[in-house]
Amino acid sequence: MSAIIIYIIIGIAGGIIGGMGMGGGTLLIPLLTLFTSAEQHLAQSVNLIAFIPMSVVALGIHIKNKLVDFKYFWWISVPAVITSAIGAFFVKDVQSKVLKICFGAFLIALGVLQLIFIVVDIVKKYKKIKKNNQNDFSKGTNYVKIYKTIFLGEKYMQNTFKHGIHPDGKKYLSENAEIESFPDPQFVYIPVQQHSGPPSEPVVTIGEKVKAGQLIAKAQGRGCNVFASIAGVVKGIEKRPTATGKCDHIIIENDFSGDRQFFTKLVDPSREEIIERVTEAGIVGMGGAGFPVGAKLKTDNKIKTFIINGAECEPYITCDYRLMVEHPEEIIKGSLYLAKAVNAENVVIAVEDNKPKGIDSLNGVLSSGKYPNVEVRALKTKYPQGDAKKLIYSVTGYKISATRRSNEFGVLVNNIHTAFSVYTAIEGLPSYSRVMTVTGEAINNPKNLIVPNGTLFSDLIDFCGGNNGAVEIISGGPMTGFGVLSDKIATTKTTGCLLLLPRKEAWLDKPGPCINCGRCARACPSLLMPMYIDLYYKNGNLDLAEKYGALHCIECGSCAFVCPAKRPLVASIKQAKAKLKERSKKK
Amino acid sequence: MSESENIKNIQNSSNNPNENNTEQLYITSAPHITKKGNSTRRVMIDVLIALCPSAIAAIYYFGYMVAINIVLCCVSCFGFELLYNCIKEKKFDKETVQSASVWDLSCLVTGVILALNLPTSFVIWEKVPILGMIIADILGSLVAIIIVKMLFGGIGRNFANPAAVGRIFLFLCFASAFKAVAADGIGLEPTTGATWLSQGIADRPVNAKQLLDMFLGNVGSASVGETCVPAILLGYIYLCIRKVIDWKLPLYIVGSVAVFSLLFEGLIVSHLPAKELFMNMLANILSGGLLFGAVFMATDYATSPNTAIGLVIYGIAIGFITVLIRVFASYPEGMSFAIVIMNIITPLIDKYIYPKPFGFVKEKKNKNKPETKEAAK
Ligand code: SF4
Ligand code: SF4
C-alpha cells in the first residue's frame, strides 16, 4: 500500500517535470533508485515505458499551442529510433552500478554545459547592451536596466517600475463619452490662484465689462496669468474656499454676448517665442501639480528627452484619454513646440497599455512620417505610472528620487493636456478652459466636458444628470484628489476630474490598529516603509520618520489603498513631511 | 498634533439636507477609495480557512479530543481578549463589546494554532484525564492572549507569536505531560508513539516508507496539527493564492533546514552513506512541526520583518536555530523556540535593514548639496 503511494508521488513529480519538457527521466530515474528498491536497469525501462503516454499527452498540448515544428520530424526520429535500439541492445550487459555512474555523469555534464551557455549568453548580452547605450550610461552604469534586459528581454525593459498597485480602473464609466462643450454658465468664480506659487493680482475692477480670454489677474513672481473664461461683467472679488484652501475669486456674470479676445496666431514660432507665449497664456501643468510651464521651460540644463505624460493612471479619469482619441495631431504638435522650447532631441508620449485606442490614434498620426522624433511608448498599466519620476524611470531607466529635479538628467515631463493647451496657445487661445471628466457611480450621466475655469461643481453636476446619492465629492482623482464639503467650489486649470462617490465605493471605514502586515511597504513605489513613518510620526519621533523615507513620499496613496487595517497613512505621512520641511527650514 | 488630527478625518456636513436623493456629505483625506474585500478580519478569515485542512486532518488522525481542544482554545482566547477590552475600558455594556478588538478574529487564529500545537492527551491528574486538557487550553490561551498580545498593545504589537509562546509555556510547565501519541492512521499500520526526532541522532535511519508515513501524518507527534503535510500544503497554497503570506518565507525556512541539517548531520555522523543523509534531511523537514511552523507561525505579521532581505535573514536564521537545537540539544521542540527567538530579534532586523528610497543618492555623491543649501537660505 505505502509502496503504491510512493510510486504515485514519484509519478506525479515525473509527469509535471516531463510535461514541462525538462525530461521526466532526469527526475524519474533518480527518484526510483533512491526511494524504491528498483535497480538502475529497471528504473530506466520503467522510465521509457512511462514516457510513451506522457509524451503523447504532452505532444498533443504542445501541438495545440503551435509549439511543434514538423520540418525536422523525420530527420530526428529515424536516426533516433535506430540508435536507441542499438543502445538498448548493448545496455543489458552493463552492470547496474556502472550504468548509474554513467547516468549521473551525464546529468552533471549536461548541467555544467547549460550553465556555461547561460553565462556566455549573459556576458554577450551585457556587452551588447553596454555598447548600444553608451550615451545613456554616461551618468554611471545602470545595472538594474542591464539585468532587466538580460533576464526579461527587451520587451519588458523599461515600461514599468517596482511595486505599485492595480486599483479597479472604472474608466468604462466615461471613456466612451465624447468631449462635449459645457455651455457657459450664468456665473463663474475664477480663483486667482490656480497654480503652485504666489496668487495673481486682479487687474479688473468691479463693474468692468470683460471678454472671454481677457487678462483679469496678472502673474506675481513665479506665478501665472489668469484669464476671464466667459464674456460678462465683473460682479465682485471675494474670498471663497477652493478645494485646497481659500483665495480671492473674481466673479463674472455672463452677459451672453460671446465676445472673445485672443492672442494672434504664431506661425512657426522660435524657441523664445514659444516660451514667451506659454508664459503669457498662463499655462500650468494640467496634471494636478499646477507648476507654471513657462518657468519649467526656462531651464539651463541640456534636455535630451521630453516625455509627455499620457499615463492617466488614476482610476475614473478619462479626459486625457479622450484628448488622445479625438485630438492626436494637436497633442503631437503641442509636444513638438514644448520640445523645441528646450531644444530636446526627441519626444516620448507615454501611455498606459490599457488605452489601446489612444495609442492607435496617436500612432495613426505618426505613421504619416511627418514627425520622426516623436515616439509613442506603451507602458504597463499600474498605479502610479503617471508620477513624473516613476514615468521617467519607466521610459528611460533613470532613477530620480522625489527630492530631486529631473532636468539634471536631461529629461522633462509634462502632461498630455498641457501639450494640447500649448498647441491651442500657439494658435492664440489663452488658458481659460480645460477638458474635465465628471464621473463616479453617483453621477447619472458621466461625461467628458470642456469646462470654462471658475464653473461651480454644482453646475457641472446638474449638467451631468444630477447627484445620485454621493457621500463624497472629490476634486481630482480618487487616489490623490481633495474631498470638498460643498459643491459650490469652482474649477481651476488643474481640476481634471470631478468625482462623486456613492457610499458603496467611498472609503468611510474607521481605521484599526496596524497589524504590521507589510503590504504598504510592498505597495510603495518609492520603496518606503509607510507603517513606520506613520508609527514614529505619531510617537513624535521625526528623526525615525525621516529615516524610513518620509521626505521621499510622492503622496500617491498606494500604501493606504492596500492597508487591510484601513490606516490613513498618507494623511499622517503628509503631516510628517510638512513638519520635517518646517524643521529643516528653521535650521 | 493631537490624535484626532491624524486619523482619517471624517467630518459630516449638513449642507444639503433638503434634497431628496442627496446623502450626507463626508470629507476625508486622500485616497478616497480602498481595496475591496480587504480588511484585517478578511485576512484573519483567510488564515482560518487555510488552517481548516490541518484541523480536519488532526481531528481525523487523533480523534474528537482535538475538536474539543480547538473549541476550548478559541472560546477562551476570544473570552480573554474581550475581558481585557472591557476591563481596560472599565465598562461592560453592549457598546464596549461591539467596539472590542475581538471582532477582527485574530484571537481565533491564535486559538486554533494553539490547539493544533497541543498533544491529544495531557494528563495532569490521572483520574480525570480531560481536566488536564481543559486546564492546559485555558492556561495556554491566557498566556498567549493576555501576556503576549494584549499587554503589549494588542494586534500588531505582540513581541512574539502568541501561540508559539503559549505552547512553549505549557511545554516548560508540564514537560512530562507532553507525550507524543500515536496517530490512528488511515488504514496503514499504526506506528509507535516515539517521534523520530526524539531518538538519538546516530541511530535513526529512515526508509522510504517511514518518510511516506511522515508525509501523510501517520506518525506519533507531540502536537496534533503538524503531522499531515498535504493538509499543511493545501493551507500554504491557499494563503499564497490569497497573497496573505509571502510565499518565499516558508521556502527559505525549509531550504535552510535542509542545508543545515545535511551539513551538521554530515559532520557529526559522518559514517552514514550519502543516501541516508539525504533521507535524514527529508525526515528533518517532515517532522517536528517544521512545516506547520513555517507556514502558519513564522509568517505571523507582527513578528516577521517587512523587507525582502530581512525576510531572507529571518527565514534562514529560523532554519539554522531549529537545526542547532535539534542536533545539539536533541530537543524536538526546536521549531517553536527558533520562531520565538527570531520573533524577538525581528525589531533589530527591521531597524538595520530598511529599503533605500527610490532613486536615493548618498549625501556625499549628491552634487546639488550646495544648491539646496542656498535654497534653504
Ligand atoms: S508612502 Fe508615499 S509614496 Fe509610498 S505608497 Fe504611500 S503615499 Fe505613495
Ligand atoms: S498595510 Fe496597514 S496594517 Fe499593514 S503594515 Fe501597513 S499600515 Fe500596517
Describe it for me?
The complex is a heterodimer of chains A (about 575) and B (about 375). Chain A is α/β, with parallel strands linked by helices and about 575 residues long. Helices cover about 40% and strands about 15% of the residues of chain A. Chain A has three domains: about 1-155, no CATH class; about 170-510, NADH-ubiquinone oxidoreductase 51kDa subunit (Rossmann fold, 3-Layer(aba) Sandwich), CATH 3.40.50.11540; about 520-585, no CATH class. Chain A has 19 helices and 17 strands. Chain A has helices at about 1-20, 25-35, 40-65, 75-90, 95-130, 145-150, 270-280, 295, 320-325, 330-340, 355-365, 390-395, 415-425, 455-465, 520-525, 530-540, 540-545, 560, 570-585; strands spanning about 180, 185-190, 200, 210, 215-220, 225, 230-240, 245-255, 305-310, 345-350, 375-380, 410-415, 435-440, 445-450, 470-475, 480-485, 495-500. In chain A, the strands form four sheets. A six-stranded mixed sheet of chain A has the order 1-14-13-17-15-16. A four-stranded antiparallel sheet of chain A has the order 2-8-7-4, with no helix packed on it. A four-stranded parallel sheet of chain A has the order 11-10-9-12, with helices on both faces. Chain A is elongated and about 110 Å long. Chain B is an all-alpha fold. Chain B has 15 helices and two strands. Chain B has helices at about 5, 40-60, 65-90, 95-100, 105-115, 130-150, 160-175, 210-215, 230-240, 250-270, 275-285, 290-295, 310-330, 335-350, 370-375; strands at about 10-15, 25. The model of chain B is unreliable at about 1-5, about 15-20, about 185-195 and about 365-375 (pLDDT under 50). Classes of the chains: A alpha/beta (about 575), B mainly alpha (about 375). The interface between A and B is large, with 95 and 69 residues. The structure holds iron/sulfur cluster (2 copies). The site of one iron/sulfur cluster (SF4) has 15 residues of chain A, from helix 15 and helix 16.
